[in-house]
Amino acid sequence: MKEIRSLALAGLFVLSAAHCGAATLTEDFSTDPLQNGWQIFGNTNLFRWNSTNQNLEVTWDSSQPNSYFYHPLGTTLTRAGSFAVDFDIQLDSIQWAPNPELPMSVAVGLFNFNEATNALFSRPDGATPNLFEFDYYPDNGDGAFVSHGHSSLDATLADQAGGLTNFPDFYFLYDLLPMATNMAYHVTLAHSAGATDLSGTVYTNGQIYTSLPSSYAGPIADFQLDTLSLSSFKEDPGYPDMLLAHGTVDNFAVTLPPVVGNLTGAFSNGVWQARFGTYANYLYTLERSTNLASWSDASAPVKGRGGILILPDTNAPAPKAFFRVRAGPL
User: Fold this and answer.
1) Following DSSP, what letter does each residue of 272-288 receive, concatenated?
2) Which residues pair with 215 in a beta bridge?
3) Which one in 62, 187, 245, 274 has a CA-CA gap of 20 to 30 Å to 88?
C-alpha cells in the first residue's frame, strides 16, 4: 500500500487537514491466493483455487468444524469507521436437512479472527461477537426465527457486547428470497462511520435483486473486525441442521477507512499535537517543515493499534510550522 500523508499548519492557530483516500483490498483470483496473503483455518478440503476459471471453489459443509478461507485486513475496523465489502457469488448446488431451531447458512464477510477461531465460537448458537457478513439461509422449515418456512438472504452485524459466553447484540437485514443455483449474484455490504446498522444489496445481471428491506434492529455497541473470510460454520450437534453447498466466489473489493483518519491538531499546554485514527500494524510519524520543501521528524515512529493516536511535537520552531503525518505498513 502506498505511503499516505496528511498535512496541517500550526503556530498561527490555523489548521487544515487533507483528505486521505480509503485503502482497498482486492482479489480476482487470477493468481494463487495462498501466495497472496490468503490462508486456511480448519478443513483445507473445503476450498480450492480454480486456476482455469480464476475463481475460488467453496464447499459450505455444516458437518465439518468451523473452517475459513481468510485474509487479514491489516487493520481493525470499528463502529467509528466507514467500510464496505463487495464480491461475486454463485451456488452450483445446495442441500439441506431443515431444522427450524438453529438453521445454517452460506456465509461470506468479516469477523474477528481470534474470536472466530475460539472453540466457543458458534454461529448457530449465536455466540459470534464481532461479525459482519452476508448469509443465505435455504428454506429451514416452519417456525424459524426469521424465515418462517422461506429461504432468506441476510446481512448480519454483531457487536462485541457479551463476548463468547454471553450473546452479543445483533442487527440484520433480510428478504425472504431464494438464491437460484447456477446464477451469478453480486453482493455489497456497507457500514457508515458511527452507524449502529449496515446496508446490503444483492444484484443479478446488473440489476438489483433485493436491497434487503426488512430488519431486526438490535442495539449495536462497538465492534472489532480484522479479517475477511469465506466461512463454513459447524452445526450445533444438539440441533443438527445439515447444510451442504458448493459454489464459487470471485472479485472481492474491501473498501477500508483512510490510513490516517480524521486528522486534527491543537495546542495542549503549549505543545502542538496531532490527533488521528490509525491502522493496526502501521507506523506513524509526525513530520515538521517551515517551508514545505524540507521535512524532518517531529516524533519517533509509533505503531498504530486501530484506534486514536496523539503525536506531540515538543520542539516546534517559532513562529509557525507545517506538520504532516507519515504512515506506512510495518
Assistant:
1) EEEEEE--TTEEEEEEE
2) 173
3) 62
Name residue, grid cell 417456525. 143
Read off the DSSP letter of residue 2: -
pLDDT tens by residue, 16-70: 333 344 578 999 999 999 999 999 999 999 999 999 999 999 999 999 999 999 9
CB 259 within 8 A of CB 23: yes
The count of C-alpha atoms lying within 13 angstroms of the C-alpha of 39, restricted to the half-sphere facing its C-beta, is 8
Global pTM reads 0.81
Q: Grid coordinates in use for 257?
A: 477507512
Mean pLDDT of 283-291: 89
CB neighbours of 133 closer than 8 A, spacing ≥ 6?
A: 107, 108, 109, 110, 111, 155, 156, 189, 231
- Domains present along the chain, CATH in parentheses: 4-20+259-329 (no CATH), 22-258 (2.60.120.200)
Instruction: Tell me the C-alpha distance between 199 and 197, whole Å.
Output: 7
